[in-house]
Amino acid sequence: MAGKFKFSFGPWNIHEGADPFGPTVRKSIVFNRKLAFYKKLGFDGVQFHDDDAVPDMNRLTPEQIVKKAGAVKRALDVQGLTAEFVAPRLWEDPRTVDGGYTSNDPKCRAYALERSKRCVDIANALGTNLIVLWLAREGTYIREAKDSAWATDRILDALNVMLAYDRNIRIAIEPKPNEPMDHTYIPTTGHAIALGFRSIDPVRVGVNIESAHAILAGLDPSDEMGFALSFDKLWTVHLNDQNGLKFDQDKTFGAVDLRRAFNQVRILDRHNYGANGEFVGLDVKAMRTQKDDVATKHLQNSRAIFLRLLEISRSLKEDKLQVMIKARDYEELEIYIVNRLLGKR
Ligand code: GLO
Ligand code: MG
Question: Is 172 in the pocket of ligand 1 (CB under 6 A)?
Fold first, then answer.
């Protein structure tokens, strides 16, 4: 049964190790060379930013963009890989300094919408109908700078523009409570799902839940996933790990809190995640200390930890669990789980 899950990551997860306090420490690897790593590491899906697929896309016409994306699709086919989603990168251009959809400058908002449409074109050319929206700069550093009700309406308008532009695409919002903003709008799964219900086509708006983002919001990632699963809205995940309320660390899945990771695997498995083709996405970063030749271990290890936790979850004795739950003996349940995580029968 373990073969049911298929895994994905984005090219940004093989990276040069720069952080806000220091330059790169590893050599750049060009996109096509990164593609060659996927299958070797046990991955079948590629997650994209629009400009991972088409660098410098702002200088190109829509036709040129689609043509370049077509070449990337052929490169994926050669490797037997699938494009899982495309996300508009709305946080690097000078016009997105104050946010994209929620910028106070109407010209900048117009740019964000245009760029989002190009992102949809790229998704089509790559053969996926899933768009991920990480609302990186849609927030404020100070509360007085924007109106949070208007901001919510503007994000809703942006969803509607994309949904109307292409009747086939689906949008998975990736909520995150902070970083780079002090406070980000749409910080949790509940916010994202609620917003989707106000859109012109609620059936086509879901979520991408990232473990670290839920933890930064003070929430349990597996409960966030359970909430989305209950609404049939969990269309992809960004599994990773996080040491408490720090910067977004994107650590190897399960490396900080094995039990928290176990519960994410368990809720996904119990609810047949993947049955509609969903990928298990990993949004993990190699440590800055990692040397060039071993800078993909975080991906391999995250996948291996997921599969090991899956094995443990599936080996639990359901009848035993039921007895403990019925008797309300949660201490016994706790030690049973901890022992299994420690490798004890
Ligand atoms: C950052 C996000 C980011 C997104 C990616 C896809 O905190 O996790 O990595 O997942 O840009 O939109
Ligand atoms: Mg992410």
Answer: no
Question: Which pLDDT band, with edges at 50, 70 and 90, does 3 fall under?
Answer: low
Extents of the domains making up the chain? 7-315
So what CATH class is 7-315? alpha beta
Q: Does the beta carbon of 134 sit less than 6 angstroms from any atom of ligand 1?
A: yes
49 is an active site residue:
yes
Whole-model pTM over 0.90 = yes
First to last CA, the chain: 21
